Sequence to fold (1370 residues):
Amino acid sequence: MRRFLRPGHDPVRERLKRDLFQFNKTVEHGFPHQPSALGYSPFLRLMAIGTRSGAIKLYGAPGVEFMGLHEENNTVMQIHFIPDQCQLVTLLDDNSLHLWSLKQHSGASELREEHRFTLKGPPGSPPSATQITAVLPHSSREVLYLGTESGNIFVVELPSFRVLEDRTITSEAVLQRVPEDYCNRRSCELVEALREHPKNPDQILIGYSRGLIVLWDLQNNKVTHQFLGSQQLENLYWQRDGSKFISCHYDGSYTQWPVSSDNRQPEPLENLVPYGPFPCKAISKIYWQTTKNGLPYIIFQGGMPRASYGDRHSISVVHGSQQTAFDFTSRVIDFFIIFSSEPTAEFDDPSAMVVLAEEELVVIDLKTAGWPAVHPPYLASLHCSAITCSHHVSNIPLKLWERIISAGSKQNIHYSNMPWPIDGGTNIAPDPPQRDLLLTGHEDGTVRFWDASGVCLHLLYKLSTVRVFLTDADPNDNMNTVGEDEWPPLRKVGTFDPYSDDPRLGIQKIYLCKYSGYLAVAGTAGQVLVMELNDEDAEHVVDHAEADLLQDQEGYRWKGHEKLKTRDGPVRFEAGFQPFVLVQCQPPAVVTSLALHSEWKLVAFGTSHGFGLFDHQQKRLVFVKCTLHPSDQLALEGPLSRVKSLKKSLRQSFRRIRRSRVSSRKRRGGSGNALEVQEANAKFDQDALQEMELAPVQRKIEARSAEDSFTGFVRTLYFADTFLRDSSRHCPSLWAGTNGGTVYAFCLRVPPAERRMDEPVRAEQAKEIQLMHRAPVVGILVLDGRSTPLPEPLEVAHDLSKSPDMQGSHQLLVVSEEQFKVFTLPKVSSKLKLKLTALEGCRVRKVTVANFGSCKTDDYSENDLAVLTNLGDIQIISLPFLKLQIRYPCIRKEDVSGIASCVFTKYGQGFYLISPSEFERFSLSTKWLVEPRCVVDMLEVTSNNHVHTKSGMENAARKSRSSGDHGEDERKSGRLMEHALLNDEKVLKEIQSTLEGGR
Amino acid sequence: MNRPQRGAAGSRGLGTMEVKSKFGAEFRRFSLERSKPGKFEEFYGLLQHVHKIPNVDVLVGYTDIHGDLLPINNDDNYHKAVSTANPLLRIFIQRKEDADYSAFGTDTMTRKKNVLSNVLRPDNHKKKPHIVISMPQDFRPVSSIIDVDILPETHRRVRLYKYGTDKPLGFYIRDGSSVRVTPHGLEKVPGIFISRLVPGGLAQSTGLLAVNDEVLEVNGIEVSGKSLDQVTDMMIANSRNLIITVRPANQRNNVVRNSRTSGSSGQSTESSLPSSTPNILANFLQGEEESDEEDIIIEDSGEPQQIPKAAPASESLESLTQIELHESTQNGFLPSAEMNLNHSAGSISMEHEVQDPDHKSLEEDGTIITL
Fold:
């Protein structure tokens, strides 16, 4: 009968599908790949980060995130917020300017691109004439000043980007009053910096790269002051009161200049090379911040002695006698200081420094002694050591959650207690429905526990397995120790450390039982650690056991890496997950699969040689099974022998790249004629086809055989309490699936709890299934009498799941890369199958059972398989009838690492790496959706500032002027603002209370 | 697969048919009901009975109308022998031990001989004094052209039968482009082509596929729009029963429509309806599909078995099981076994495990660790 029920012909099911499934990419977690620009709005208290791929991301209070993407996918060079506006301007490396604004749409703010603009010079002028080097959004919010390579400064009107030609500041006009001899020595060259006078919006400071600095009067269109710098200029910064400014230079010096009405061409007050006297690197950016106690903060990037510290990425903070050079592990892209932005405040009183380095965001608390770092609630560097695997656990019980947080907080004592200083916007997303953990394994042997419940992926706790082993790294080698007379006073900050001491420490598989707090972690050198959560520090011996997976195999030699050496004697472990058993696989090949059963206290592990079962209660090995095929030399010898072929394939792919480059160059030449686009296109296609023929990539068509390499590679392990031998008695069982399409089933006898320590766990092979198509087995699952997947261990004991139906007959689902097959149990006979590869040419890469709830009714939910294929498609397949429900394209098929990194959650969400440092979060469910939803409201910002400063009058007036730009969705707030124009304190309070009441 | 044409078999003659059977120097004569020849097994029993050699393994052959000695080892060729016998059916019986294999197939068409020898001796590139053809009961189809009547003449649908793991399918595919007629005129479109045939492989030995043939479909699914890797995966996934539709690079050897030489799928009489192709193919596949791969299960008794169907087993399953059995016996007495040694030692070790229950259970005892 089923055969005649074609999918898509049942309208009821179709409707239900719409209520159950929906695909959304919701949020990107982690640190943006290849950041290239940083911006900050003290008014909105939002930070913007641009990337080399043209993305722009805005961050405020935790949960407040916006993302935009430039169509051109070009590098974002500069980001400037328009003062006191929900708008920002970006400059790309193609010299185009883009105006973005935050607008409210159905209750939440959205970031949208409003305009784009490319500055065009007069016909015939060189491109450098209009190459923008500096951007100044004027505080009037009406114009942008654009400094160019030619030295001319263009003025464009906002938001239309109309060039106001009559207001252009030409280099000729600037040079008119500059002394002849100075002019002769150096032309103006490009505009390096544009700074508005902090008190007088009619004056702007212009710095040219050769060192000339002028103060330009916008009203009279003339130079009022000139400062004849002798060094190549890097940047400028005004002192708060506008009486002085500071310039920093290519030679590692900075200079203070006085600005007064009596001297139009002053000499510098002070010229200093902070890390002299030997040649220093450029200081590329500098801040001069005043404080109440009179001692300023001077904060500058770079300036290190060229010879000995030229390779450091540093930012120095000087405050009186205190001086620290913060030393970053990756290049500093840009930084800004958060200081009191109230115009009435007398001093800057800096509170925090925010540094965007190439691989991480570091925030330094400048108010607390010792300038500790602030733990960022988002933008975590997922890749501080490369991610090697990930594991997601949904719906963590509160107790475990709190214990993990408490263990983590003990690790974070060196962080500042300062509240997160970038706190703009309001998060209006509903609270996350449950507590979710994402565990990432890293190359350096650590496991990081992330709070993946909401929009902000936040590090809770970091577990290191390194302490169990003896490594070459000297434990006393502390990078942070600073000697007494150390100069420069470098201090390492940040967590990004891509260098692993020993690649064997890498974590390959993680399994956490959320009910018992047992954690199993397995690594590259065949190490399997079983851990228990302990709230206290403890010193104890880790039990060792060896599992020889090649027991009876003769004449074999492992040529891969050795196993890790372990520490003898008791080891001190900090509070958190503490290992108590180490099972070492022999040969020490990568652990390829891992399963933990916390109720039976068993851990199963598999490598390319076989698999084993370990009783971690009695600390005894129960059995091992070699899955190796005798002819499989590769697996026998280990990874070394693959090196040669890898080299070869690398060489080949380089050749291929080179070939395609050559032909693409040719192509470009051919399509030069713009009039004959069609012809060019046709030619392009032809070339593309010819290219295909030129590079004949061949694929061998051959049936898989038992001889193929790595057939014994254990891909999946699964514990189930089911009917393995007969239909009257069920028993614990262990299932293992290999790369060669074999499934092994072992019958286990676990003694009852009261005799658990006295009797041994026994295992006996009960079944072996050889799939004829021999594709790798990637998933095994047992469905109970109601066709529901068996619950996780302890789930029933904690009343979180119905106990499985042991009355009806159980079914076994075997998922290979090519097919899904349902078998009956205990007699294994094939019942149903869904061929994927034979029909569609795609293969299963990841598969998980996910529970989908209906968005319409609370009481309906069903279990389906979420499947990711090698083409990057996600398919949802129904259980137990294996009908394809829906298919969504998710990851580009070329993005192999993205596909490999994908992890599904139990409730139809998932994560995959879009770069080494970023997880994309997606949702397949209509019900479980975690996405940023936030508001950045001008009104709110205004009133917040009012609360902060109590000098709301002026503030509100200032803001209200800007409210004209607001969208129509804010008509109500607009009306309120008109009242505010009356400058009435009462009205302001009224607005404030309205807002608070409304929230 | 070779559907037994039972209906047609007995339709030719009526009444009885004379059989003359020779074993060694002895002749036996008896008669058979032409319309009810029965099964080969019965016939084989009958021969053993009349020659009084109940426990001797023998090979049975007959001379066809062309005077060729052909084997009888299954229902199909037995029925064929009965139906073509005119008037006398001459049977030759040899002891298996001293059978002269080279006698079979003498004087038959050379092409056919090549096909057979290639299948049964994968490494025929090695020089051998004379061609040895293995046991007749090991004969099985290795390839066929199907759906000739429903495909355009320029296309060819080839079915490759891949039974064991002893012989490579043996071909490579690549990306390429072909010219198509579209509403916008001639257009170059990307396509998938056969780029290489492995010498001695199944693909080459059939002679039905050639380098630069364009692959249009794999098991009824069009490949246009699919990447090379996708098509590769599809072919490998279907490798046990691969049906590829190609447009041969060499169009001179095409089957001429009205001479229905190979009508293996003789269901469709309405030819020249290319639009119905997928349907028919789907029907055709439906029955076969289930049989193309049956997983093997080893229960803890150590007894291997083909996984039975939960649904009633289809007829084709039986036939497959038979073939599988033939295949495994083949290893025992292939005369050219020493040449296959390298190959088979590795490839059939799974079957080894399956076949050797004692060995199996021994190994299992080893894995049960009682602590």
